[in-house]
Amino acid sequence: MSIHWFKHIRSALIVLLWWISAPLHAQLNIEIFGGGASRIPIAIVPFADENKLQQSITPIISADLQRTGLFRLVDPAGSSPHTPTEVVYADWANRGANALVIGRAISLPGEQVEIQFRVMDVAKKSQLTGLAITVPSTQLRAAAHRIADVIYEALTGDVGVFSTRIAYVLKRGNKYALQVADSDGYNAQSIIEYTEPIISPAWSPDGNQLAYVSFENKKPVVYVQTLATRERRAVASFKGSNSAPAWSPDGKRLAVVLTGQGGSQIFLVNVDGSGLQRLSRSSGIDTEPSFSPDGRSIIFTSDRGGSPQIYRMSVSDTENSRAERLTFEGNYNVSPDFSRDGKSFAFIHRHNNQFNVAVQEIGSRQVQILTNSKFDESPSFAPNGKMILYATEIDGHGILSAVSRDGQTRQHLSVQTGDIREPAWGPLPKWK
Amino acid sequence: MRKLVGVSLIVLLSACASQTTQPEVEDLAGSAGNGLGGSDLMGSGSDRASYFSQLQDPNSILSQRSVYYEYDSYTVKSEYRELVLAHAKFLRDNASASVILQGNTDDRGSREYNLALGQRRADSVKNMMTLAGARDGQIEAVSLGEEKPRALGYGESAWSQNRRSDIIYRGE
């Protein structure tokens, strides 16, 4: 792995090129643009004996932190403390580092590795946090992501999302693959591959299952697949089209869009396919449901007012529920995704023939447009609400991109060959 | 029997789900559990043959199967009325025949919203057919949204090819 830096003085533009060869012949390329003004300067010293492992730990940690746009990496060259007593704080203060990460890797019998690390506060000359974790030697990337999460949480106060996974659809030639990868795009695995389209993957709240829409039977049908066993079943396969699955927060039900009773309307169905219940009732199109975190309401796209806009309706009291219109700027607002704190939603907003990622606060109705590309689609909030993953196009190719909640930092994640689209950011792992 | 074959196919597909490839030519009526409805629609082999020879006769309007739309519209244009009504009459006269109508859109905008727009196009053809005497049970209107473009590329010449409903006879 090689890292090249190009620093543009005025805009503090940082481009990080990072080449890897992931499994399944997918070569990923991650570039970062922008970065907040007040980035935390952090020095990460290569851990003692990590070069004896199959995979060094600290480059993965550095890349994770770098991608958030919240950190500035301070070069540790010439000094390599591994324990607190070896740290000369004045040296790190002179280099401009506020935080210092040190540690060591210890190989244990049975292909296990123990990694000890500490985060030191340079100004206070004391330890901020520290941890020892033991993993099989095949799980070193996962260990690095956990360490990056601990560092991120100690320094920002927010929960880290480096240990999460993402799902997306990769189209290569005439093949469509539903893939799951680590949050940094590594360890990509195909869950299912077909010669017919797959769209709209949605994670179950426990991260064990994916719902998605497959066209393998000449029409859209909603499936739920268990990742560990690859077992899958059709949960919505009614006459007409079946699409747009969204999980209820308790993981027991799905909101789906069906056309069998006329138009495209939102229904609730149990995960086993039973208990069908109509939710929306309009003469127009109602689609793209997304549950509120408390499970009591959904937001969705509807053209009942003449153009596609985002509405909210209650799930519990459907008889008396009137849908409330939420978006008013422009004549094309679609694909809403509720943030996990329920205070805002991401969506796609069209203006000047551009389709861009935007966020609207539920309370104040304030809208912020976060991107300036041409064809953005399918925004998906990170579980900590700090980033939004979305699909966009470069030179006619579909790629994934992520933008920070404030719009300051963007990163591209692309596959060398093929189109990548329909991203969905998975939930936090259970131990969080 | 067909149903059984279909079910075991689904089981096989799930068993090796990580690397399955859809057969290029699929018998729509043979896939059980996919919501496509009845499959025992066709009569004896010779009936079936004469039935499809009518549909595939290049001199017959029945060989034409696509309806095209204006941008942002799902109205069946007058130039396609004769085509849709001919298929409606065929369905009315052949109670055992059935079709799947697939609505399509160009690729601008949300995939799921486009799926709903494509559904509207298929529904508009279905409505015209049922008004002309075809039975509701003979027609399934579905959408492929922007997922199966006939023409690839950017611009109106490609997009106009993709704003389309296709009429597909089951078992053909």
Question: Explain this structure to me?
Answer:
By secondary structure, chain A is mainly β. Chain A folds into 2 domains: 36-156, TolB, N-terminal domain (Rossmann fold, 3-Layer(aba) Sandwich); 165-425, Neuraminidase (6 Propeller), CATH 2.120.10. Chain A has helices at residues 58-67, 89-94, 140-156, and strands spanning 7-8, 13-14, 28-34, 40-44, 71-74, 99-108, 112-121, 126-136, 165-172, 175-182, 189-194, 198-203, 209-214, 221-226, 232-236, 242-247, 253-258, 265-270, 277-278, 286-291, 297-302, 309-314, 324-325, 333-338, 344-351, 354-361, 367-369, 377-381, 387-394, 397-404, 409-415, 419-425. In chain A, helix 1 crosses helix 3 (140-156). The radius of gyration of chain A is 23 Å and the shape is globular. The two termini of chain B are 19 Å apart. Chain B has 2 domains: 1-40, no CATH class; 43-169, OmpA-like domain (60s Ribosomal Protein L30, Chain: A, 2-Layer Sandwich). In chain B, helix 3 packs across helix 4. Chain B contains 5 helices and 4 strands, in the order ααβαβαβαβ. Chain B has helices spanning 2-15, 45-56, 81-93, 111-131, 156-162, and strands spanning 66-68, 99-104, 139-145, 164-169. Chain B is 39% helix and 13% strand. The chains are: A mainly beta (432), B alpha+beta (172). Chains A and B meet through strand 11, strand 15 and strand 16 of A and helix 4 and strand 3 of B.
Report the CATH superfamily of the largest domain in chain A. Answer: TolB, C-terminal domain
Q: What is the percent of helical residues of chain A?
A: under 10%
Structural class determined from secondary elements of chain B: alpha+beta
Q: What average pLDDT do the residues of chain B reach?
A: 78
Continuous helix count of chain A: 3
Helix share, percent of chain B: 25-40%
The CATH architecture classification of the largest domain in chain A is: 6 Propeller
Give the number of helices of chain B.
Answer: 5
Summarize the biggest pleated sheet of chain A. Answer: 5 strands, antiparallel
Instruction: Tell me the name of the CATH class of the largest domain in chain B.
Output: Alpha Beta
What structural class is derived from the secondary structure elements of chain A? mainly beta
Question: Rough shape of chain A?
Answer: globular
Distance between the termini of chain B: 19 Å
Whole-angstrom Rg of chain B: 17 Å
Largest interface: A-B, 53 and 40 residues
Largest sheet of chain B: 4 strands, mixed
Uncertain spans of chain A: 1-28
